């Protein structure tokens, strides 16, 4: 055929109609006439009706071509297979994530409406690994044990400091007035020294804000400093 005639025929040859049918189930099948017309764009439906009317009611009308292979993962809207017949291309797409589990018909085979083509599997949501859950639980238990040990340590320190404060209170009590005048200067000196040492070791301002030691000092100071001042005034 002369090249000029080929150019004329190519000029008047109409482009293929592409119809996309999306599936959500677990079986990929050849769509029937109504499903194809519903999926076709409005401007192409008349031509699609003409092609479908030319097909025999008994002979398989479509040639199958696979776009995916068995075992392939499917993303939403991936084309799994294509059907071709007389300028019509039907794209069979999966509407969700999954896997092409098994192809039931070979590529190139002739198939008709309703023919099952493949078995699909929906992808389940991945469960959290058991090892990850176990790790979080172990961290939680370890933190609880560390907190319990810290509390016991703080309680022991507080008890020890309370004993020290008790001894200081007893010593301050012995410095109350009522002694002989010759002992007054020595008693005052000892009292001021004890008061100074008590303030130096237990005044909360010597520790930073929010520190656990500062909180312990505040409790000790609030309990015993009024006793010191009362002795000093008496």
Number of domains: 2
Main sheet record: 5 strands, mixed
DSSP strand content: 15-25%
The CATH topology annotation of the largest domain reads as OB fold (Dihydrolipoamide Acetyltransferase, E2P)
Distance between the termini: 131 Å
Low-confidence stretches: 5-12
Radius of gyration: 46 Å
CATH architecture of the largest domain: Beta Barrel
Instruction: Please state how the strands of the largest beta sheet are arranged side by side.
Output: 1-6-5-3-8
Count the DSSP helices: 6
Instruction: Give the % helix.
Output: 40-55%
Can you say what the CATH homologous superfamily of the largest domain is? RNA polymerase II/Efflux pump adaptor protein, barrel-sandwich hybrid domain
Please state the overall shape, judged from the principal axes of the Cα atoms: rod-shaped
If you average the pLDDT, what whole number results? Answer: 78
Order of helices and strands: HEEHHEEEEEEEHHH
Derived structural class: alpha+beta
CATH classification class of the largest domain: Mainly Beta
Number of strands: 9
Give structural notes:
The chain is of the alpha+beta class and 234 residues long. The chain folds into two domains: 3-122, OB fold (Dihydrolipoamide Acetyltransferase, E2P), CATH 2.40.50; 130-233. 48% of the residues lie in helices and 20% in strands. It has helices spanning 3-12, 33-39, 45-54, 130-173, 184-202, 212-233, and strands at residues 17-23, 27-29, 62-66, 73-74, 78-85, 88-94, 98-103, 110-111, 116-122. The strands form two sheets. A five-stranded mixed beta sheet has the order 1-6-5-3-8. A hairpin with a 2-residue loop joins strand 5 and strand 6 (88-94). Helix 4 (130-173) runs parallel beside helix 6 and helix 5 runs antiparallel to helix 6 (212-233). The longest helix is centred in the middle third of the chain and has 44 residues, at 130-173. The N and C termini lie far apart (131 Å).
